[in-house]
Amino acid sequence: MNTPFEQSLLPHLDAAYNLARWLLRDEHDARDSVQDACLRAFQARDRFRGGDGRAWLLTIVRNVCYTRLRQVRREKSPEAFDELQHGAVDAAAETAAQARREADHARLDAALAALPEEMREVIVLHELEDLSYKEIATVVGIPLGTVMSRLARARLRLQRELKQPPAPEDSHGLQ
After folding, report:
1. Are 22 and 120 contacting, i.e. CB atoms less than 8 angstroms apart?
2. What is the pLDDT of residues 150-172, one digit of tens each?
3. Which of 140, 146, 141 is nearest to 19 (CA)?
4. Residue 92 DSSP one-character state
5. Nearest alpha-carbon partner for 8 in 48, 59, 67
6. Fold agreement (1-78, 96-163)
7. Which of 17, 23, 51, 130 is most buried (most C-beta within 10 Å)?
8. What CATH class does 1-78 carry?
9. Domain residue spans in the chain?
10. Topology classification of domain 96-163
11. Per-residue DSSP letter, 129
12. pTM, entire model
C-alpha cells in the first residue's frame, strides 16, 4: 500500500520525465534525473506539506536537471554516437503519411529545442504538462507576470519558426 507521500507524487512521474527530457534533451539523462529527483523528494519528505505534489516534484526535477546541465557544460564530454541519426533506415517500410507525421513532429521538436531554456521550460510545463501559471511560477521560482510574458514570447517564437517553410530535403542529386 502506498503512503500519502507516494500517492501524491507517483501520478506525476510522467510529467517529471517529460520536463527532464525537454530540459536535458536526452532520454537516458532524463530517466536518471527523475530517479535522482525522486530519491531527493523521498529524503526530503518531511518538508512536503501534502496536497498536490506535482509542483513540488517538478521543482526538484528542474533543479536536478539544471545541476546536471551545469556539470555537463563543465566537463564538455564528446558527443555520443546517435544510432538513429547515423544508422541505416529501411525507407521501404515507411509510408508517406508516417514520414509526414514524423517530419512535422521533428519540426516541432526542433523548434522547441531551439527555444532558450527559460522559454522551453514554461512551454513544456504549460502546454505539455498542463500546469497553471501559478504552478509554473512555483516550479521555476519566478513571478507570475514573468511566467505569462515568457510563455507569450515562447509561443510567438514557435509560431514564427513553424510558419517558415520546411527546409528542402536533400535528394543527393536524385530525382
Report:
1. yes
2. 999 999 998 888 888 766 654 44
3. 140
4. G
5. 48
6. no
7. 23
8. mainly alpha
9. 1-78, 96-163
10. Arc Repressor Mutant, subunit A (1.10.10)
11. T
12. 0.63
